[in-house]
Design brief:
homodimer, mainly alpha, Farnesyl Diphosphate Synthase, 17 helices, 2 strands, globular
Chain lengths: 342, 342
């Protein structure tokens, strides 16, 4: 593990106890089935409602929010309500995404719809979405709360736009690289941008600082997703724990495939369609797709896009006021987002 | 049409132009596919995105909110942001409910999931939910907005609890009348109660007035749903436009069926199970279920429950301060909610 990855694995622990306390108070003591399912999805209990230690996700969004507030004000605590709201929004979208993508696993356990059906998984998401707005109600002043609600609602709309575009792309063969980048800027990066912006808001920083941090978060988020797509095509199985070309096997239309379709000549495009026509492409076919990508320079192109957004993030960081611009942890986070190997 | 029904059909028109203007400004000008689907669901456009006149629902919740504000302050306009939020929440739950219940029709047109799939119907609901919170941001003061956000989030949680219980009931044969009443108090009545409470909040009325109105709305909402269930079993086909025993045909576990199961002796219960065992019960079987209901006094019992909640609503109305207690339109609304024939 490199230095940046070590930091990212340590940072959430710094805030975990505070986050857990506030999150539990927002969810409340309700002991009905829908709250038990929500607690399961949050990684607090098993499917019978018994407490246990489960994977709760990396908490990247709440961590970014708290780190921004701490860097600006010297204290992370004013941003706790916003950080909890961000984790709730993220978990709300995951419950709905699992339904849409028919993903049977979430963080190593059965997804909510797999256990209790599509209807209850929609309900779990709806519950967590509502509670995200509840969480914001504990920010320091009415003015801050009003501004935070506006930001969170706008961010939800962006995430839904991205999710909706992603679904629509499944039925299209002509999605361009630019359309794809716009989609991930909404589906993934908007919430990362909002995380930093809400941290600045809670710290009482001027709106221009919030805007700068949102730019930084947006660039980081896009770089993060491109990196994810790179790992899905070219990740080292020994590090990712997933087979070579995992995304290609699952026929996901990630950036490498779209870039290949755009870069290839007509015979190359035909060959790609043929290779991915099988319901479950075999090793031989995956290998052939990867060779096509080498031939048309796709790996370099995708890496170039990742580098471009990482550079955008570093520029945005440098343009921020002093306590942020030379903040070692922010620089390390950008590093992690853009160079992680798993 | 009786006097109460006439009023209820006229009231929404009083506010329609204002509501439409605010609602459209909250949804904004976005012209992407997900916003087009949302506009379809709201009844603004057809499935190709072309504007037209479609059934947009009765707008009962927004009407109640505006009427409460107007009765208390002499002006409905301060409550417009809350009224729009309520219609958006209602429409958000409808898009998700249609997915959960596999309802192919909504207000006489194909439901969103039927046209564009389950994933996009979830997205439409999520979008409208977020925009409901956006809408509240235009209330008069930050303090009012904060209070309204708290109320709306709590109400969403209640609605989700009710929806989740309703789904869970489908897999159970032992749901009691009390459990059912608790379910509809959340799924249906909580939002009616919140509509009146938000109207009071927007009018600047003291919290006790809001509490009293919420009690009134809760009782009205329960009476409304019981009435709905009565119409589904005993409604006059000539008035409802639906076949006799519509809910029974669809094997919905509404109040009459649950009350019958609870009131019947063992042979009666066995007979009921047998009659409803067919995938699509025939006229003869529906008639036999209705006869069982007569034999065990179910119609009187259900009417008694409806009367009880209507009386609760009238008591709550009478306990409110003067401009409300003797408000002829509120009294007429209670009448409509509890006596409507379609």
């Amino acid at each position: 593990m490199n230095e940046a990855a070590a930091l990212v694995s340590e940072l959430p622990a710094r805030y975990a106890a505070d986050l857990d306390r506030v999150l539990r108070s927002v969810i409340g003591e309700h002991d009905d089935p829908i709250h038990r399912m929500a607690r399961y999805h949050l990684g607090w209990v098993d499917e019978h409602g018994d407490p246990g230690q489960f994977n709760r996700g990396k908490g990247l969004r709440s961590t970014l929010c708290l780190l921004a507030c701490e860097a600006l004000s010297g204290d992370h605590r004013p941003a706790l309500p916003a950080a909890v709201a961000l984790d709730l929004i993220h978990n709300f979208t995951l419950s709905h995404d699992d339904v849409m993508d028919r993903d049977v696993l979430r963080r190593g356990r059965a997804s909510v719809w797999k256990l209790w059906g599509v209807a209850q998984a929609i309900n779990v998401g709806d519950l967590l979405c509502a509670r995200a707005f509840t969480a914001l109600g504990d920010l320091a002043s009415p003015e801050t709360i009003v501004a935070a609600h506006r930001m969170l609602a706008d961010t939800c709309v962006a995430v839904v736009q991205g999710q909706s575009a992603d679904i629509a792309f499944e039925g299209r063969e002509d999605v361009s690289v630019d359309e794809y980048l716009d989609m991930i800027s909404r589906k993934t990066a908007a919430l990362i941008g909002a995380s930093l912006r809400l941290g600045a808001l809670a710290a009482g920083a001027p709106p221009t600082t919030g805007d700068g941090l949102a730019d930084l978060g947006l660039a980081m988020g896009i770089a993060f997703q491109i990196r994810d797509d790179m790992l899905g095509a070219w990740g080292d199985p020994a590090v990712t724990g997933k087979p070579v070309g995992q995304d290609l096997r699952r026929k996901k239309k990630t950036l490498p495939v779209l870039a290949l379709r755009q870069a290839a000549d007509a015979p190359g495009r035909a060959r790609l369609a043929e290779l991915l026509a099988a319901d479950e492409p075999a090793d031989r076919q995956i290998q052939a797709v990867l060779e096509l990508m080498e031939r048309f320079g796709v790996r370099e192109q995708v890496r170039g896009l990742a580098d471009e957004h990482a550079a955008r993030a570093r520029t945005a960081l440098g343009a921020l006021p002093a306590p942020l611009a030379d903040h070692p942890e922010f620089a390390a986070l950008i590093d992690y987002f853009t160079t992680r190997r798993a």
